[in-house]
Amino acid sequence: MLRGAFGPGRAAGGVRDAVRLLIGRRARLRWVHLILGGALAMPYFLVGSVIIGPATGSTDVFGSFPLQLASFGVGLPIAAVSSLFPTARPLEAANARWLCGVDTDRIASGPARTWGERVRTAAWFTLHLGIGGIIAGMSLALPPFAAVLIALPAFAWLGGTRLGLPEVFDHSWALALAPVAGVASLVALAGCAAGCGALLARWAPVLLGPTPEDRLAAAEARAAELAVRNRLARELHDSVGHALSAVGLQASAARRVLDADPEFVREALAAIEETTRRTVGELDAVLGVLREGDAPGTAPAPTLAADLDGLLRRTRAGGLRVTARVEADPEALPPLLSREAYRILQEGLSNALKHAGERVAVDVCVAAADGQLEITVENPLSGTPSSRPGGGHGLRGIADRVRLLGGTAAAGPTPDRTWRLHVNLPMKGPA
């Protein structure tokens, strides 16, 4: 067991993980991000050198490492001030997403709107340029130095003094250790770059992440998108689902009485033609919303005022004996209420078509009383119910519509073996 835990395979895997951590794709991208920060820091470094030179009386700032560090330190506050502009945040956020590997939802994409967002952006920009400038300087200096150390033994025959090297390299042990020191410096550079890149990736969501207001706006946008999708799903289910159920039952009934009742067959075929024509128009209207860049379809949404009689006629053509009592004026209903009530009644009749059986009597009542529009659909549970795989979304769609309108709905069997759907919709209110 110990051999399996500490064997050659596990050791090789650990080496691969270490190499991936230091020079893997993510580490390389973060290194590029740091080098980019160093490049962005150069103009501010030059401005800092212009300030440090006269302040110290030096005419050669670049010849002194302490003065270079001072120039770099003076340039960073200038960089922080310049990043207070709103457009700095989207640019830095894009770099953090693409190069640091930070998840998109953890980084804000819009410009800074408040002073708090601007200050955090300035802190991030300063951190990016500061660490990036250090890593960029190391990336310029260490590789040539490491290359000299690695190649030094190959030129040992020339002699240390003849190469202008320190006298310590006159010793054989120093020449033997020079390549090791060169490789170690490269590993140290890769480790520093990987560590600094991971540090920036960790701080990016804190300094560039969305504020609570941004998260709330994103949640509201997502909720609005889901609401549109749910509404389209309801429309497709209620219109296309009802039409397919009705057409299937009408065709089945017409086939069975093809020779015995030609008049009924003609009515069923006419109803099939009318149903499919209307459904194609409704489908085009719904799909037009989904097509990006296309104008929505022009087919009007059906309402009680426009198509109540047609809905009842097409349902009767499917074999149901529908008795309807309309005690409300469909023309007086608000358009939204009339449209949603039509869909609710359509779904109730569709359920009767699918589950009540053939030649079953269905009672429909549409009435207005006390500021409420009442819709009732009743049918006996006796008979041979029609069945189809899937389904089960109709009552949930009715419940969604009723809830959005601020009404109530109840559906289920009654003690006298009758299925009853009863809906109350306020004629004024949340709709």
From TrEMBL:
EC number(s) recorded for this UniProt protein: 2.7.13.3
Catalysis: reaction(s): ATP + protein L-histidine = ADP + protein N-phospho-L-histidine
CDD domains for the chain: HATPase_UhpB-NarQ-NarX-like
Domain Histidine kinase/HSP90-like ATPase: residue ranges: 340-427
Domain of life according to the entry: Bacteria
Alphabetically ordered keywords of this record: ATP-binding, Kinase, Membrane, Nucleotide-binding, Phosphoprotein, Transferase, Transmembrane, Transmembrane helix, Two-component regulatory system
Any one GO molecular function term: protein dimerization activity
Protein name: histidine kinase
